[in-house]
Amino acid sequence: MAISLTPSQLKTICPDAPAHATLPLNVVLAQTGSITPLRAAMLVAQLAAASERFRLLEEPDGWSRPTAPYFARGWVRLTGRRQYREADGALDLDLLGHPELVTAHNAEVTAWVWNARQLHLFSDAGDVEGCTRALAGAAATTDRLALTRVLYDRACTVLAGSHELIAA
Q1: Which of 31, 34, 35, 90 is the one with CA 20 to 30 A from 44?
Q2: Are residues 43 and 123 in contact, defined by beta-carbon separation less than 8 angstroms?
Q3: What percent of the chain has pLDDT over 90?
Q4: What's the average model confidence in pLDDT over 136-159?
């Protein structure tokens, strides 16, 4: 059974997260098989860092980007026609015709990306940097890596006490 978070646990991990993020986050945790504290901690940390603490579902200046209308959307920042096409086919959503559906189906798209990229392989090893690079690509800046590490450490503490005890 997947781990789920309470709003207070999410606030402890990510104080800026809106309370309404808890329900879709728990859907993602369930759909990705986040059954260990390491898996749940990695997923929460990665998504919080990618989405400006669960407050951003769409790139603010997306329509001015060369990738428009397939600019970064969702907590996983689905970007570009190729990624939209892959998600479209896998999820049976018309994302190519209606790219805005990514935000409406954020939890489903997020879980699909996490599973398709097999990001739990990084979670199980406690590899924050590897997971960040696999998810963010060129957006895996030093600042993003540092933020993700802080969020991951907090999530490990909230979910299981200490990741050093779990990852060993």
Answers
A1: 90
A2: yes
A3: 90
A4: 95
Q: Does the pLDDT of residue 130 top 70, yes or no?
A: yes
Written as one letter, the residue type at 38 is L
Contact 99, 111 (CB under 8 A): no
As beta bridge partners, residue 58 has: 73
Q: Which residues contact 13 (CB under 8 A, 6 or more apart)?
A: 5, 44, 45, 48, 151, 154, 155, 158
Q: Which two tokens stand for residue 94?
A: 């018309």
Sign, Cα dihedral of 35, 37, 43, 47: positive
Among 92, 7, 96, which Cα is nearest to 54's?
A: 7
What pLDDT is stored for residue 161 in this prediction?
A: 60
Whole-angstrom CA distances from 9 to 28, 120, 122, 148 are 16, 21, 23, 17
The rounded distance, in Å, linking the Cα atoms of 4 and 40 is: 8
Give the tokens for residue 163. Answer: 């990741």
DSSP 55-105: T-SB-TTGGGSTTTTS--BTTTTB-HHHHHHHHHHHHT--TTT-TTHHHHT
Count the residues in the chain: 168
